[in-house]
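Thread: quick sanity check before group meeting

JM: Hey all, I'm pulling together slides for Thursday and realized we never actually wrote out the predicted structure for the chain we discussed last week. Dropping the sequence here so it's in one place. If anyone has concerns about the input, flag it before I start.
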Amino acid sequence: MRVLVVDDEKAARLRLIRILSALEDLEIREAGTLEEARAALAEGGVEVALIDMRLARDMRNRDGLALVGEVRAQTTAVPIVVTASHDMAEVRAAMRLGAYDYIIKDELTEEMVLPILHGLRNTRALEREVIQLRVRQGADVKMGLVGTSPAMQRLRDMIQRVALSDRPALITGPTGSGKELVVRAIHALGRDPSQPLLDLNCGAFPATLIESQLFGHERGAFTGADRRHDGFFTAVGAGTLFLDEIAELPIDLQAKLLRVLETGTYRPVGMSSTLKFRGRIVAATLADLEACVAKGQFREDLYYRLNVLEVSTPSLEERRSDIPALVAHFASMLKRPLHFTAESLEILQLAPWPGNVRQLRNFVDRIEVFATETTITPAVLASATRQQKASEAKGRPINELARAVLSLPEGIDKLRMMEQALIDEALRLSDGNRTAASRMLGVHRKVVSRRADRLGDGAAREDEDE
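JM (edit): ok, ran it. Output follows.
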């Protein structure tokens, strides 16, 4: 705690400083005039100001009283007046201006001074805790961490513990349970939330591109690198880099990521020197990384390096008591706020939610579309659900096809098989014209060309106009 002692008599200042030195973790500054006191306060950081009522020998001087008012009006410091006068009218005037307490100079002893500072220190510590609690509660609601169930209380406690560290963290949990919200909360409660929070989905880029996205590259590092590019490791600065779907990271890049975690350095593609990584890595995945390690699809050493701190997000099944609060939270964000009756909330609490919180939120959004009333009763809930099912029936042939493919034996690359079948059929129907096929598939022509080439298509002809 930083304390400013303001008195025009040096002997009086030294006497007060000797008393204050009995307290630990105290930084003491002193000022002999009103101007010196203002300059010390302008530097910032002062939490307590012990102010002599008269900063001159002239009994008419009221600089100390004026300073009390300035401290209260212009700073966050707490003024305490020190006076040689027993005139309580002056003391009352100082208290009206905002003085926290007063000390008579004749009573400058440890027994009189230190208890006031002890009480003030405890009060300020309690105020800080209350402010931090309010900030965290506000952050919880803003980021969607809604609910008071034991599972959510454990999650919040773990988030706060992880946020205090700068070591890697691994976020696990079922789909739709809020892993991204957890990452945002860890960053918001971390060492410097003003720093960037960047996220990179490791499965959203081809293997040839993701290295450049992560590490960056120098101009001329490879064909097409016509300028220098800062990757995520550079752009994140001292912030948080969220690597989503970390299990999708190619095995050769896993080794390079491990080096970043072990040495704190990285090397952009084409650069001979290394750069310092100042940020923090938080990873998440739906995959069972231990199973991936056993299959040789994920490095064991990287798994243990990432899994220093693990945060597991609970499924909605584990926190059914939070469903009413979640529904109210989602409904309050709609353009047309809805009110769910107690009976309808009971139905939602008993319903299965395999897609967890994400599915619940999507359901509330759909209710807004299908319900004509703003009060959602069980009857309205049933009617809206029937309309929703009717609209979903149009997509059943696709769903049935998907289920048929998924039922095929393990070991088959089902995604590749479906992708190739769609591209082959589109090319067949368009007589090999990739532009026409791309329109049929609803994607850009380059996507069809790239994927057809990757899948080994040799029948597709180039468009005649090229």
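AS: nice. Residues 457-466 have pLDDT under 50 and may be disordered. The longest strand covers residues 78-83.
JM: adding both to the slides.
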